[in-house]
């Protein structure tokens, strides 16, 4: 039976539209780093590289390579950890050119460095060597977090972040870092801005 994260991990990927606490354990991700406006080509190329490698892993058995422990699954959604440069933090308004990010796609437990290296070979014809060199396998643990579903434009996320900050303060928590996570459940190329679904998450303590 095919593993569907939307059905099996609803609490992590399909939260409600009000802030709530959750504990997120350590997961393996294929990641790539970047900086600047995500509306530019650099960001799109990095997203494409992540999906290329993730589908290369997913389709390995059809290439004659079946990793130990492999099972059928749906590729996980794109996620991102977002921060600002020091200059960006000093500005009154968000300057997207000052954004610093690490975007990623979670991988099933059977995906090891060895599996990733095989997938990199498979994807070498589709992805530039520069981007391939930037792809990493990382274990990341968000731990205690506050998250909610944001529905609407990415530019309207501040309203949801303000709700989350009020919830954090009310419950005696505090931000562990100014970096936040976003999980993209909609394809912005196919969805109207006011219908985009994005999970927003703060790591807290």
Kindly describe this structure.
The chain has 205 residues and is of the alpha+beta class. It has one domain: Regulatory factor, effector binding domain (Multidrug-efflux Transporter 1 Regulator Bmrr, Chain A). It is built from seven helices and six strands. The chain has a six-stranded antiparallel beta barrel. Helix 3 crosses helix 5. It is globular.
Write the topology of this structure:
Layout: H1 5-8, H2 10-13, E1 20-35, H3 41-58, E2 78-84, H4 86-89, E3 99-106, H5 113-123, H6 129-134, E4 136-151, H7 157-170, E5 175-184, E6 197-204
Antiparallel strand pairs: 1-3, 1-4, 2-3, 2-5, 4-6, 5-6
Helix pairs in contact: 3-5
**Average of per-residue pLDDT values:** 96
Count of discrete domains: 1
CATH superfamily: Regulatory factor, effector binding domain
Give the helices and strands as they follow along the chain.
Answer: HHEHEHEHHEHEE
Strand order of the largest sheet: 1-3-2-5-6-4
CATH fold field value: Multidrug-efflux Transporter 1 Regulator Bmrr, Chain A
N- to C-terminal distance = 38 Å
Please mark out the parts with pLDDT under 50 across 5 or more consecutive residues, or reply none: none
CATH class bucket: Alpha Beta
Beta-strand residue percentage: 25-35%
Q: Indicate the overall shape.
A: globular
Radius of gyration: 17 Å
**Main sheet overview:** 6 strands, antiparallel, barrel
Compute the number of helices. 7
């Amino acid at each position: 039976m095919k593993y569907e994260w939307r059905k099996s991990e609803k609490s992590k990927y399909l939260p409600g539209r009000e802030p709530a606490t959750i504990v997120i354990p350590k997961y393996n991700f294929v990641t790539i780093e970047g900086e600047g406006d995500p509306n530019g080509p650099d960001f799109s190329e990095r997203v494409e590289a992540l999906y290329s490698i993730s589908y290369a892993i997913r389709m390995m058995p059809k290439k004659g390579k079946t990793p130990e422990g492999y099972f059928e699954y749906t590729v996980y959604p794109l996620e991102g950890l977002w921060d600002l440069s020091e200059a960006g933090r000093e500005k009154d308004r968000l300057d997207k050119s000052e954004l610093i990010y690490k975007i990623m796609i979670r991988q099933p437990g059977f995906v090891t460095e060895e599996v990733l290296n095989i997938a990199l070979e498979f994807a070498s014809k589709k992805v530039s060597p520069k981007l391939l060199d930037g792809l990493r396998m990382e274990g990341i643990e968000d731990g205690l977090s506050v998250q909610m579903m944001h529905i609407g434009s990415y530019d309207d996320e501040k309203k949801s972040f303000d709700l989350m900050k009020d919830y954090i303060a009310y419950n005696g928590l505090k931000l562990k870092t100014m970096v936040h996570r976003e999980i993209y459940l909609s394809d912005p190329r196919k969805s109207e801005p006011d219908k985009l679904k994005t999970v927003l998450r703060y790591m807290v303590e």
